[in-house]
Amino acid sequence: MNLDKKIYKKLLEVPKGKITTYGELAKAVGMKNGQRAVGKIMNKNPFPVIIPCHRVVKSDGKVGGYAYGEEIKSSMLTLEGIQIKNGKILDLENRIYRF
DNA sequence: GGTCCGGCACCAT
DNA sequence: GATGGTGCCGGAC
């Protein structure tokens, strides 16, 4: 299976209301330092509707970027019950989904 | 808290 | 093929 496919599949494991980080996701598919690669792959993701790339945030707790805009991403997360303050995830440790 | 550089897959030369 | 630039980052300084 392609690496990107693996990433997408892993990401689908993240339940609604939970999030993960680029680093975690990268490690989950075997890339120790592939955070940036993950970001690029997310940006190129072929199924934007199916792939919940808005559930992936930066390891410092910030929301991070998003192909359709960070506000959109924040809104989506908020709708899923995740609280955000000034672009930062509140109660991060409690929201992170670990594979 | 801001900047810099490392690191990795992808795509266009 | 090989090479260089790039991107929803991360960690160090």
Q: Please name the fourth-level CATH homologous superfamily.
A: Winged helix-like DNA-binding domain superfamily/Winged helix DNA-binding domain
- What is the CATH level 1 assignment? Mainly Alpha
Which value, in Å, is the CA radius of gyration?
12 Å
By DSSP (H or I, 4+ residues per run), the number of helices equals 5
Helix content bin: 40-55%
Task: Estimate the mean pLDDT confidence.
Answer: 92
The count of domains is 1
Task: Give the overall shape, derived from the CA principal axes.
Answer: globular
CATH fold-level label: Arc Repressor Mutant, subunit A
H/E topology pattern: HEHHEHEEH
- Cα(first) to Cα(last) distance is 19 Å
Strand content: 5-15%
**Mind describing the biggest β-sheet?**
2 strands, parallel
Regions with pLDDT < 50 over 5+ consecutive residues? none
Class computed from helices, strands and strand pairing: mainly alpha
- Count of distinct strands: 4
